[in-house]
Amino acid sequence: MTPDEFRKHAHELADWMADYMENVENLPVKSLVKPGEIFHKIPDKPPLQPESFDSLMRDFNDIIMPGITHWQNPNFFAYFPANTSPASILAEMLTATLGAQCMIWETSPAAAELEEKMMIWLRDLIGLPREFEGAIQDSASTATLTAILTAREKATGFLSNSDGIEKSGVLKIYCSEQTHSSVEKAVKISGIGKNNLVKIPVKDDFSMNPEKLEEAIIFDKNNGKTPCCVVATLGTTGTTAIDNLKAIGGICRKSNVWLHVDAAMAGTALLLPEFQWMLEGKEYIDSFVFNPHKWMFTNFDCTAYFIKDAATLIRTFEILPEYLKTRTRGKVNDYRDWGVPLGRRFRALKLWSVIRTYGVNGLREKIRNHIAIAAKLSEMISEESDFEILAPVIISVVCFRYNPAGYSEEQINGLNEKLNHQLNDTGKLYLSHTVLNGKYTLRMVTAQTNVTLDHVRKAWFLIKDTARGLIH
Fold it and tell me: FRET pair for 391, CA 20 to 30 Å: which of 45, 167, 399, 406?
């Protein structure tokens, strides 16, 4: 492709992208294709001769687009958001054009130093103590693995890295029953083993029970085990419950246990002064993660990982083959030593673009609006006698179910599962679910970048009508 051809197609793509953002609301939210439908439309063998970009775009529109679920549609209420914004997309285009591999300072000084500054900006915006340093990871799952590996090395005096985990005795990791599945995956990858992950019961609000945590730690210590790490959550996956960091942190400090905080979704709410209460007990935190790519309008992937003791993190991951030795080592941050991968993308650029384009006040305004919409949705649900709220509404997630009179729990669960699928099959909205205390629970997330109260009202009317139509 010549520079002139590239320029032509790039302009065409810019128009396509702008049209998509303008019209995404009119597309089916959830892809309605059947399994294998896309696969069988793609040729079994690649072309031997070059094909035009125009032919690629035709197939993109005809084959690929029908199989896309539109996360940027304001009627996307499922899972958690994976938000983007024009500012983030434009910066990602620059990143792709530069094609920089930002593994160490030498390979792109601007990437390393912009990342360092963005981590300072974010640290101060969300209210973490100034001794924390940060790096951008690809996902909260990777960040949590990084935390558990670092905690493992601290607990074993770095013997796990040198001699293997089997020489270090039995290490124990603790989290609540509501914690994200990435914790169990990290425990398996780390060599600690999922049977050494202790899931602590939760209280009525679905937050971790600190008393049960302390009992578990004492029990393990009395039985010759080594408590290694506690993963507390600000905004659990199912209900966005907020664990009590002050109580949990005090227990960790007393027992010399690493405290990692997973705030993947809810961490963005810490930009609001009125949500700083979630960080009470922050003096006990050892590592902390949240995802700007969830609720801070920065497209995937962009995870902010903070650590109080960066030296322990670096000692856990650093390795220095001859081909990576530089004259600047020790004078700069070589972020390849701050996590698992050697290769690193220039993620800080889109974060810089988003923060500057919105401004802090603009970010706060959008986040407050999403929280207010969730509160209003909660009010609308509570007004209906045949619906019920099943968990406290804290930020932008509402957990509820259809609960008509005269039906057994089993029948009500079946009705709500059927309701969920029937709604999603319309293409007009997309909801996901969880199970709380044995109850099939619908989750509605009001945090998509461009969602409005009008979108939520229309969705709620559709939910009510569809639900009541199931029994008439």
Answer: 406
